[in-house]
Amino acid sequence: MASEEQPLLTRSSQRTHSTTRRLILQYTVALLFVFGVGVAAWLVEETTELEFRDPSSQTEPPPRGVQALGWASAILYVRLDSHTSFA
User: Which residue among 36, 37, 50, 84 has the highest number of C-beta atoms inside a 10 angstrom radius?
Assistant: First the structure.
């Protein structure tokens, strides 16, 4: 039975709250980054004058800016994911 002198929150419960808040922040930042990269890629695609009608008959690769944003997004996703711990 708990006495009135015992704290309601222990150090471990405070740590769990801090870890949860950190995870929410990490995933929010990652999601905003993905949306930002998507918008940036769309803007790059809209400003280029290349016209792709049929993706299967496409002879030229996509613009390098779009490729760079895609690779940056993938690399940062893997990097952020590898630092996330669920302990």
Answer: 37
User: CB of 45 within 8 A of CB of 38?
Assistant: no
Q: How many residues does the chain have?
A: 87
Structure tokens that stand for 29 in this block:
């930042």
Could you tell me the pTM of the whole model? 0.42
Residue 19's CB is within 10 A of a number of other CB atoms, namely 13
Write the pLDDT tens digit of every residue in 27-68: 999 899 989 988 888 888 777 766 555 566 666 676 788 888
How many distinct structural domains can be found in the chain? 1
- Give me 73's structure tokens: 């997004």
Q: Give the domain range for residue 79.
A: 28-48+61-87
Q: Which two tokens stand for residue 51?
A: 């016209």
